[in-house]
Amino acid sequence: MTDMPIRAVIAPVTPLQQNCTIVWCAKTKKAAVIDPGGEIPRLMKAIEDQGLTLEKIWITHGHMDHAGGAAELKRLTGVPIEGPHKDDQFWIDRIQESGEMYGIPEARIFVTDRWLDDGDVVTLGETQFEVLHCPGHTPGHVIFFHRQARFAQVGDVLFKGSIGRTDFPRGNHQDLLDAITGKLWPLGDDVQFVPGHGPMSTFGAERRSNPFVSDLAIEAMNVQGKDYEAPVNRSPG
Ligand SMILES: [Zn+2]
Ligand SMILES: [Zn+2]
């Protein structure tokens, strides 16, 4: 793994144990924090301990446990915020009130420096990540993919053994299924992903065993049509 272009550490934050990830370009030690939901002092200490220079703040979607600390991290470091897709503006607008509801009173609204869209590329040091727009959990959800490292941060699109909730305003179950099967699966079974909550997995493992989106579950849905009974979704995000 020593020739890998990137490295990553996961630092769960907030009472919702959201998987904030610090990724960096191995060559330049320039880092991005993906989804700084909160606990900014701890994240800044982790960046310093690793000898990294923060260059970017990347946001997968506008939920407060993923984005509630972005404004504070930008205020303290001056680095730009990239993401999510502009369709999540209405979620960003309510970060503060939902933070108060979910026990994250320090969560703050932020202003992004760059909305992201499907097919965009974001740079980090001398390397780059691809952006895919994956709506369904929220309409403006994006994921970050490093092709060479076979690594993705997928936020609340997909979890080990589950998928994102779609019972929020402007959530859409079919959009989510389409994003997972039409955008994530083609990236390759070998891709390791960090979900928004819980342990890492690979796309291949989820295609085999995820009760919501395994190849068998999708096939059963297609065969049974509206008679198909989906499992109950108890995912954390
Ligand atoms: Zn979440
Ligand atoms: Zn979410």
Please give a structural write-up.
- With 237 residues, this protein is an alpha+beta fold.
- The protein has one domain (6-227): Metallo-beta-lactamase, Chain A, CATH 3.60.15.
- The protein is built from eight helices and 13 strands.
- The longest helix is centred in the last third of the chain and has 12 residues, at 173-184.
- The structure holds zinc ion (2 copies).
Strand ordering within the main sheet: 6-7-8-9-12-13
Going by CATH, the homologous superfamily would be Ribonuclease Z/Hydroxyacylglutathione hydrolase-like
The total strand number stands at 13
Structural class: alpha+beta
CATH class group: Alpha Beta
Chart the SSEs and their pairings:
Blueprint: E1 6-13, E2 18-25, E3 30-34, H1 40-49, E4 53-58, H2 64-67, H3 70-77, E5 81-82, H4 89-93, H5 95-101, E6 121-124, E7 127-133, E8 142-146, E9 151-155, E10 158-159, E11 162-163, H6 173-184, E12 192-195, E13 201-202, H7 203-209, H8 215-224
Parallel strand pairs: 3-4, 4-5, 9-12
Antiparallel strand pairs: 1-2, 2-3, 6-7, 7-8, 8-9, 10-11, 12-13
Give a quick precis of the structure.
This protein has helices spanning 40-49, 64-67, 70-77, 89-93, 95-101, 173-184, 203-209, 215-224, and strands at 6-13, 18-25, 30-34, 53-58, 81-82, 121-124, 127-133, 142-146, 151-155, 158-159, 162-163, 192-195, 201-202.
Annotation keywords:
237 residues, alpha+beta, Metallo-beta-lactamase, Chain A, six-stranded mixed sheet, five-stranded mixed sheet, 13 strands, globular, binds zinc ion
